[in-house]
Structure formats: C-alpha cells, structure tokens
UniProtKB/TrEMBL annotation:
Protein family (similarity comment): Belongs to the SusD family.
Secretion signal span: 1-23
Organism encoding this protein: Christiangramia sediminicola
Protein name from the UniProt record: RagB/SusD family nutrient uptake outer membrane protein
UniProt keyword terms in alphabetical order: Cell outer membrane, Membrane, Signal
Location in or out of the cell: Cell outer membrane
Length: 475
C-alpha cells in the first residue's frame, strides 16, 4: 500500500471543501502547496506529472477502480447487495440522501479529476516539444469531457424531469478562478455540447504517433470511443456512427474470441482494449477493489441476479459455471455459481491479492455494439446485424436472426455485465429499473421519472454553493 498523507483539498474548482488523501508519489493539485501549481508548470515533465495525477485520481476506488462501475450495476437489474459487509445496500435500495458518503465522494473525486485537467489545459509557456505538449493537453480535454459526462449520467435530471433541458451539472473549465468560484448547474444538453467540443479539441491537438501502446493513457482512438459512447447515450446516432467508425477503421483493435475472453481480463493491453486504468501491486486497492466487492471474502457484497444469469446459453463464456474457491475450483465462465448459492462475477477483475488487474474503461466490443446500434438507428439494419453478431459469434452463443433495439440492448447487457453500463442503458431508453427478483432485490421497482434515478447533490456542496440547486425529491 502507498503511504497516505492527509491534506485539505479545495476542489480546484470552487466546488466545495473536501478532506481527502494522496500519496507522496502523486503530483496532484492541492491548494495546500506553498507555490501556485499554475506557475510551477514550466517544462513538459511538469505537465506530464500533473496528467499522471489526473490518471491516478481516475484510478481511485471512488471512480473507475470501483464506485462508478459498481453503481452502474447495483442500480440496475443485473446485481444487488447481499449486505455481507453492509456496502452498497443503500445504493441497491435507491435510498441515498444528500448526506450519503458515496454521493459526496463520487462528486468530489470526479471534480478533482476535472481540476487536474483544467490545470493542464490552462498551462502556458511550457518548454519542450510542442507536438508532445499538445498531445498531453489533448488527453486533458478528453478527461474533462468524459468526467463531466460521468457526472451528468448520475446527477443529471434527464431521467427525472426529462430531456436535455433538464438540470445537469456545472461544466467547469477553469482551475481556481476567483470570478467563478460558485458555478451554477449547466443543463444536460449544455454538458453534452461542451463535452463534444472538448473531444473535438482533443482530436485536433493529439497525434496518433504519440499514442501509448500500453493503452494506459487516452489515445486518439480512445477519444473517438468516448465520443461514440456519449453520442450513443444521447441518441445522436450519426455522430455515434461516425465516431465509432473512426475507431473501427483504425484497424488497431479486434473482438477477442471465447478462448481468450477471460484471459484478457487477467492480463493488460489485450487486442480488444482501447483504454485501461492501470493497476499494479504497488497501487493495490486491496479489499477496496472491484474483485473484492464482487467475489467472496471480507466484502463480497455485490452478487449477480438470477435474471441476468438466465440470459446466457450453455456454452457462452460469459455465462454460469460452478466454482468453489475453498476447494480451488475455478469457473470456466464470467459468472461463478458458489456453493452457497450466490452468483458471482469472478471472470472480470479477477485478481484479489494483490488487486492488480487493469480496469477496462473502453473495450472494442462496446464500440462494435455502439456501431451496430447506430447503423440500426440510421436505417442500415442489414449491416447492423453483421456487427451485432460479431460479439455472440465470439462468445460461444447463438447469432441473432435480426438486428432490433431489444436484441442490441440484450447483447449489451450480456457482454458488458459488471462493467457499469446497465443502469445507463436502462435510463437512456426510458425503461426504469424493474424489480425482477423480489427476494434478492432491495426495492420494488423504480419507474422512469422517479426522483431516485438521479443521485442527490451532496449536502457538502449545496451548503457552500447556493448556486447549485438540489435535485428534485431531496429537499
């Protein structure tokens, strides 16, 4: 474990005061520093250090190393909490309040990521190769876009009051700007358009010759994949089609076969990985990582629902097989049926001690399914079927006879289970969250439009920023 040092961090954005921690190795923005970080960035190495700090914040268990992914599953019909350690119970119940811990830590950490990105974007007069500097800045623009998108999918009111005119989140583009310390919430549509603009800027600045071959930093293809994801969420089908096509046409990625599917989650930089969050034994999140919340052990609170397991055919590598960790019996599929009767995700994020698996943020299979959906929505059902079937044909599953919206959503559910997508798929299609298992699920169904489908704004934020309006139903 890295040594942790406590410090006060004003969210480099004027979005409230938070107490958090960082490691000695991290070079992340903090107002506790004696000199201004903006004036400390003089060379390309300084800029890269702040960028590494942004990636390390993305790596935190309050972002892509656990919470964002688990929230996308626990607030859906894929998983529930068995309260083994009382984690993710209120999330599974949809009973969060403005004082709930995860509501605050998610908000705070994501805006801290944005703070790092804004420092990089604003840095001027840096010595070094201009093209490399631009490539680093482009990554910061992409990080800023993705992080605001992730915020709006959880805190925006589009699932409650409907439409892009609903309240979103503040889109913050400056670090520690005294003129805008207390920003108001942008609309959902404004967040979307500002994210698109940031991604366009990212692509204009970045050079594919500088792309990281290890896939642990955002590449030009990852920028297009992020754009495709955002456009898919908002139903901007032509944009989704064009962005995903850029990734496909790069020729840098492929759908992996059933024989290597599980191994790709136990290794780094696979042929289907577009961007991964790096994890090493030194970074070890230990019991706070994804593996230990999905598998049996000290935590093990998040279990799969039988309804999800039932969607898979026999022979599908993503389906169900017996496993018994006490007897050293490993599963041959993603989902393992434990002797205690629980269904466990054991195939994705498998390492528990140390927790060292890279976390896939964007896989090529997601882009393929985005492309299939965009083809369908733009009137090309024939090609959509070919791209849709590329996934089940490589999983030991039966091909589809037709490309329909239901089939694409079903395949997304099967392929992307446990990776944090299901809640957002339910929301973007207006389906709400059904109670498909009255015994295991901790709610009786959350219809689309229910105020609980948006997280409350944390009270730590509304208490210091009167310009940020609380979400409907939480006052």
């Amino acid at each position: 474990m890295k040594m942790k040092l406590k410090y006060l961090f004003v969210l480099g954005l004027g979005l409230g005061l938070a107490t958090t921690s960082c490691s000695e190795e991290d070079l992340e923005p903090t107002l506790a520093q004696d000199k201004s970080i903006e004036t400390s960035i003089n060379e390309i190495g300084d800029l890269q250090a702040v960028l590494i700090g942004a990636y390390e914040r993305i790596q935190e268990n309050t972002y892509y190393s656990r919470d964002v992914i688990v929230m996308g599953e626990i607030m859906s019909d894929n998983t529930t909490s068995n309260a083994n350690s009382n984690r993710f119970v209120t999330e599974a119940q949809f009973s969060l309040t403005p004082e709930s811990g995860i509501v605050a830590t998610l908000w705070e950490n994501l805006y801290e990521v944005i703070g790092s990105a804004n420092i990089i974007i604003a840095a001027e007069g840096i010595s070094g190769d201009e093209n490399r500097i631009n490539h680093l800045k482009g990554q910061a623009y992409a990080i800023r876009a993705l992080t605001h998108f992730d915020l709006v999918t959880f805190y925006g009111q589009q699932n409650v009051t409907g439409g892009e005119s609903a309240l979103g989140v503040p889109y913050v583009t400056t670090f520690r700007d005294n003129e805008s310390l207390f920003p108001s919430r942008n609309t959902v549509g404004e967040v979307k358009m500002m994210a698109y603009a940031d991604l366009e800027m990212a692509l204009s600045l970045m050079d594919p010759t500088f792309d990281d071959p290890a896939k642990e930093y955002i590449t030009t293809s990852a920028v297009s994949a992020i754009e495709a994801r955002i456009a898919n969420y908002f139903g901007d089908w032509q944009r989704s089609l064009t962005a995903s096509e850029r990734v496909i046409d790069s020729g840098n990625f492929s759908v992996v076969g059933a024989d290597t599917f599980l191994a790709n989650f136990d290794a780094d930089g696979g042929a289907n990985m577009i961007w991964e969050v790096a994890n090493t034994p030194t970074d070890n999140a230990d019991i706070n990582g994804l593996a230990n919340i999905y598998q049996t052990g000290s935590y093990g609170d998040v279990i799969a629902l039988p309804n999800l397991a039932a969607t898979y055919e026999d022979g599908d590598v993503r389906g169900v097989s017996d496993y018994d960790p006490a007897a050293g019996m490993a599963p041959s599929t993603v989902i393992g049926l434990h002797p205690d009767g629980t269904l466990r995700n054991v195939g994705k994020y498998p390492s528990t001690a140390p927790y060292e698996d890279n976390i896939p943020v964007i896989r090529f299979e997601e882009v393929v399914l985005i492309y299939a959906e965009a083809l369908l929505e733009t009137g090309n059902a024939g090609d959509a079927l070919d791209w849709l079937n590329m996934v089940p044909e490589n999983r030991g599953a039966t091909s589809y006879a037709a490309a329909t919206k239901d089939n694409i959503l079903l395949e997304r559910r099967k392929e992307l289970a446990f990776e944090g997508f299901r809640f957002h798929d339910l929301m973007r299609t207006g389906m709400g969250v059904e109670a498909k298992d009255p015994v295991l699920q901790l709610h009786t169904g959350i219809p689309f439009g229910d105020f609980r489908l948006a997280l409350p704004i944390p009270s730590s934020e509304t208490a210091v920023n009167s310009n940020v309006q609380q979400n409907q139903g939480y006052n």
